[in-house]
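Hi there. Long-time user, first ticket. I'm pasting a complex I've been working with (about 917 residues overall). I'd like to know whether the download I got is complete or cut off, because the file seemed smaller than I expected. Thanks.
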Amino acid sequence: EWKGWNIHVPDYPVSVAMDDFIAKASEVTGGAVSGKTFHGGVLGSQPDAITQMQIGGINYAVFNMGPMGPIVPETNVLSLPFIFKDMDHMHRVMDGAFGDKLGEAMAAKGLVPLAWYDSGARSFYNSQKPINTPSDLDGMKFRVMNNELFVGMVEALGGNATPMAFSEVYQSLKTGVVDGAENNWPSYESTNHYEVAGYYSLSQHLILPECLCVSKASWDQLSAEDQAKVRKVARDSADLQRKLWADRAKASQAKVLESGVKFNEIADKAPFQDAMSAVYTAAIAKTPELEQLIADIKAVD
Amino acid sequence: MTDIPPVTRNVDRLLGWVAQICTWISGLCLVTLVATFGWLVFGRYVLNSTPTWVEQLSLLMIVTITFLSSAVGVHEKSHLSVDILPGLLPPELRRWVHVLIYATLFGFGLVMMVNAYGLVRFTWAQRIPLLDIPEGVRSIPMTVSGGLIMLFSVGNTLRALTGPLEDDLPPVIEQDELLPDADALKKDLM
Amino acid sequence: MGLAILLGLFALSITFGLPVAYAIGLSAVAAFAYEGLPLLIAFQRIVSGVSVFSLLAIPFFIFAGELMLHGGIAARLVRLASSAVGWMRGGLGQVNVFSSMLFGGISGSAVADVSALGSLLIPVMKEKGYEDDYAVNVTVTSSIAGILIPPSHNMILFVVAAGGGLSVSKLFIAGIIPGVLMCLGLAVAARWVAIRRNYPVEEFAGWNVIAMATVAAIPGLFTAVIIVGGALSGVFTVTESGAIGAIYAIAVTTLAYRSLSLADFWTAVIRSVKTTGMVMILVACASAFGYMLAFYQVPAKLATALFWLSDNPIVILLVMNLMLLVLGMIMDMAALILICTPIFLPVAVGLGMDPIQFGVMMMMNLGLGLCTPPVGACLFVGCAIGGVPIERAVRTIWPFYFAILVALMLVTFIPAISTLLPGLID
Ligand code: NA
Ligand code: NA
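Hi, the file is complete. Here it is re-exported in full:
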């Protein structure tokens, strides 16, 4: 009986797809694989869950690739701002040879990625003004995830990067401890951040995939035949998740726009991208493998 | 107190020092915590540049305080416990229930130390973001705590076996220790 | 079977007197072992359980409270209470309740309230001809105000146990009306007993005495204003406001009151880390215990059982209150918040209850547990200070229990009592 970890509430696109995955996997393997997904993060935070998968307490999970960097440094390539041109580009890269290559680096750490899920594109939002150029961020306090790359990104754009626990962000936005944050449409909506930070600027600086992973130990116990079948249903679940995600993103966008959120596209993203060269340089200096991986991604059209 | 054997008294004194050191380290962590948060607020509003290391560092501090001072709690027997059964037992039997409790705590301390050390090693290759030190550092206080619990349990067992029975009773609340100017106030109210 | 090991070993080890925190940890580890789960994960849960940002507010609140105690604030609050309500029948009983209400705004801890105010007021009351059981009863029951009136570290535990997503500041101000309401009930109970026992009346001290006492107490009371107001206004996060509150407390006790020596300061630090260690090791071990509760799907099973029992919300709420009361009688508050919140909160929310209202209800309910035998930390400390056997104190405590129960029922069935103030800051 496999144990699945998931951070999201049961009706989220990821959650539906995970339940679909484990049900289908049980079907196609004739019960060789079966399990239950524990939704809502009841088994711990994502970094803890990754460790649990490595130790052997959790058998499958969907992990966001943002906090994967401290464990598999190569995956930091996905956290580089503007690394992907758009969602479709990300799909082409991750579903192709590059995804397999990155998968090998993860498998070496005990995590076998079977398919790549969507978590949309993250953009900046804030309570002050629309953002059109990097200088609009000057002096503004932006909450970022706990990762040097995101701190570096906001600092390179002239903002005041404020790492902060997710649970504190709503109150901090509301009361002005921070001016803004960055996330995708569904998170912006479901966390109610749109109520307190009413300017959403479509920077799409991060297109972070999530991965449906199985622990190396559980994976190696399956016959090659079962592995192929499970991988197939995993890919199918990714198709389902991407479709559900797209619907969800559209619905969330519609909901927040209806509530009066001021939304703007950014006409020229080049100045933002140019400002990132320092972030890239620093990342490569720390993890030299990234240079080749960046080139690999750029090579995919 | 004359019938406490010298061995017990010396061990007690030694463990008292160990506990004292742990308490001081915890105290320094608390002072550091308060100071870094003052610095955080100062940085955000005055320097307009939020120190990014405060959050992760403060988590290490609170972990240190938790595991060191909870181990000290074993030495000082200040942990919350229920004591329904021991209170009903005749004194001689109560002595052995206490020994059983300390033996259990010793075992828990051992399992804690071994597994916490396992975590230190397992997560050593990971990095704590924004501090850039090994994730394994986070589990060091728990490892130490496991060892301390074992050590203090041995001391408590020794006390329970060789000391007078009263020594095992919960400490008497020291009145007025909290309020420096209580006497003056009492006179006012009288 | 695994669940039986988890709960059975826990019950067995606390009965034998194993410290509650380690009893929780031990039974969780045993369940991990029984299920063949790696023990490394149990200890990962234990260390991760305290590696949580929101929990940092706890040592800060405790520290701020200790600083104010050692800096002489408690004494000033009692003076204010004494001048304001001491002239009523059974005046010192009223002073006791009113002091706890004021003190609640500084100390987040009921036990600190009992030991600080009790060691001051119980001897004075005895001296003045109040029976010792009355002195202990009033002191012990009114100490619950410290949990309800902000800041309160138990409310932080609730927010953490609820899985984040709740606003600490909202929960804080939600406790104010219920806390005051409960104190009013206790004041009525104290007066009722005082009349029956014909306790003395003091002379009215005069308005200028009240004014002077108020002025003297204000800088101390302002600590609570900084902590709660700082977070509400958004100058600081809740965690930061705890630290700023502590820094303010250092400033006011050294500069305004000039009563905090370096030795007092270090005493406050040492006492704070000891209290913090005891609370946080509970949080740590409860995290491993909670993992196994989730593993056995206890929350879902209990919800099913409750709804099987009845589909009447009033009955379910009463049953939940009863279960919390019984558990509160035999177990410590912090541990119960951490274990019961994930189990009961979804049921309450399923009934359409506001999580904030549920939190206040739970605080008051478990607070009552601190004043009941066989396991009640406040009752124990109060009886130890008063030199009263627990049996004797409990024999005459029922008017006070009754007052708290009435307040608890009001909080349970009238949402506005807890949701009115938080609604205003939206
Ligand atoms: Na309080
Ligand atoms: Na009181």
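A couple of notes from our side: Residues C 96, 99-100, 117, 139, 142-143 surround sodium ion (ligand 2) (CB under 6 Å). Chain C has a mean pLDDT of 85.
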